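ingest -> validate -> predict -> emit
validate: passed (alphabet ok, no gaps, 451 aa)
predict: started
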Amino acid sequence: MSVELIPRWQRRLFAWFINRQVRRASARTHCPVCRAAAPTIQLHPDLLWEAVVECPQCGHVASLPSFLSPLPKSEEEQFAELEEVVPQPPGTQIRAEDTGSGRRWQIPAKGGWNVLIGFSLVWLAFLVFMCFGFVSQSEPGNAIFFGCAFGAAGLGMLYFGLMASRAYHVIEVTPSELVHTRHFLGHAKRKSLVRDSIQTVKLVVFYEQNYKPIHGIEIVAGRRKIRFGSLLTPKEKAWLCQDLRRVLGLKQPLADTLAVPSRDADETGGGKLVMEHGPGHAVVQAQSRALSNTLLGVGTAFVCISSIMLWGGGSMWMPWEEGALVFFLLFNGFILFWCTGVSTFLLIGLATLTFGWRLRRTTKMLHADRTSLTLISTCDRRVIKHVWNVADVARMAVEAGAKVNGVPVYHGVIVLRERAVTFGAGSDHPMLRQAIRLLAETMGRQEAVRQ
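emit:
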């Protein structure tokens, strides 16, 4: 989304929040080329994520997300990008067997405790204490409200924690389909994909833990997906992923070298990307979906939770009593401090909610020819247009920007002298690479598509 389409008050709020996060991550900011420490970054409200950062050591120019990517690649990431054959790890508890007409893998339950189980038990214990306090003060209404609202969240966390610890998986490939069955607490959930429709089996990032990406296995067939295996070891994930590809007859992921057709479109759940080209020109039209949906969800959650907390804080306001001045000031001062902090989160939630709503209705169109690059951003009745000379383009690439549940959301980026233009957040990664290649070739650039 173009920054100019965002109200100025939201830009100031986002600038404060992003600058705060950048300062906290300053120890991990580095040049993606020479790995030198990045300069001190202070975003201006008029640029935000479109700001361009230049490395003081090698002069490399890139967008802000490039300087915030992690430095060393973990074992998990190295196996995720490995093209070589990975043997079955010794000592693995995964049981693989040929069935005559296919192959079956059984992944045992991990067992033990995890963070979700421990946190949910503490959450529920605190909730019981709070509800008991409300009942003892003859406030059953508050006990029922808090018990239902926060009890559902605690039980949900406990359920997912137990599932991660106690569920085991069975994957079976037959001549006609791939079947994934999850067994948990005596219940089996079965999901199948038609074998001939399976397009990819690969390792993708499921979430982050201690700032490191955790991969899992993703099997894609059209719009349907099967995802599992995030708790396996890196070697087990790489071996199982390659074994699945071998049995299904899929090749290893190859570099995207296909020519772009005269018109191609990607309308996955993550985003919409349409490419067209003709004699001497190319057009890329992009609309984000995954990021906007996530922002709408996060904004709604912030607003709801902050509103409940404000209501709870207001209901705890202590009335004036004779002879209790000190306690009155201390207690109500804490309530004011509490409500001020919660109000900040409410404001951030409202800004995120409205930003997600605007992003969902925003469309970007990039038009390229031999001499110029034109960007037209539209949101409802507002239209923003920029025109640059081809010589102003410093770099073009596909980068990972925002993350959804720890999973990087890729987007195309065109780095200019004064700003970085992003498009297609959440679109399919190979399609973004094709879009960058199409624009670069139309402008007469030999662009090495990164990522």
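DSSP finds nine helices and 19 strands in the chain.
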